[in-house]
Design brief:
TATA-Binding Protein; 2 helices; 6 strands; 32% helix; 2,4-dihydroxyhept-2-ene-1,7-dioic acid aldolase; UCP028291
């Protein structure tokens, strides 16, 4: 199992969890509430947590390619949804 984590500074973490999960729910299984979310992609999983002043992301994939796809999809959508904040995502290996 490959794992990568990222912490995005934002006051709108809960909003972005809902926005991401509602969007992903059109194609995949998701679960979410005001403080956490989970998106089950065919290539892996992304867990989202609203923290004090930040959105924590934890992506998992069976292999490097799967992990890369999950990270790319989540990052692409978050950057588009949070365009006013211009977030920069720096992933760390948590495997």
């Amino acid at each position: 199992m490959m794992i990568a984590e990222c912490r995005v500074e934002t006051a709108s973490a809960s909003k972005y969890i809902a926005q991401l999960c509602k969007h992903f729910a059109h194609k995949i299984t998701v679960e979410y509430d005001a403080t956490k979310g989970r998106a089950d992609f065919p290539w892996g999983v992304c867990r989202m947590t609203a923290e004090e002043g930040a959105l924590a992301l934890r992506c998992e994939g069976q292999d490097e390619a799967g992990l890369g796809r999950v990270k790319a999809v989540v990052e692409d959508h978050l950057v588009r949804f949070a365009w006013r904040e211009k977030p920069t995502l720096t992933w760390t290996d948590a495997s």
